[in-house]
Amino acid sequence: MDSKLLLQEAVKAHANAYIPYSRFGVGAALLDQDGKVHQGFNIENAAYGATNCAERTALFSAMAHGQKPGTFKALAVVGDTDLPITPCGICRQVIAELCDPDMKIILGNMKGDIRETTVRELLPGAFGSEELRQGQKPE
User: Which residues of this UniProt protein bind Zn(2+) (predicted)?
Assistant: First the structure.
């Protein structure tokens, strides 16, 4: 699936965002290894810490449907922003944990602007499972 089609899927997801507080909708579309698209959108909550971003919703939904970490092909994210939107820090960490470092990330806005990057470029020097294992004592 090309970048523009995946971004269109993110725009469709954007329409479902539950954003009664910020009114700032974000949509995401995650392409899995089988060619299936998993949509995600931000879901807010009055207890702000319970809010979930679009990128994480798409990733968690894909995994809930049997997809495994590291098998995803691309992620598109869109928001109503002047420039192509970028994921927040928490989402960057989750993306780095669940996706291949060279996986394509397509960033866009509602005006049709697009910027392509990779997981590695979004979060250079990502902290992951290897770093956690390095700090553990052998059993």
Answer: 53, 88, 91
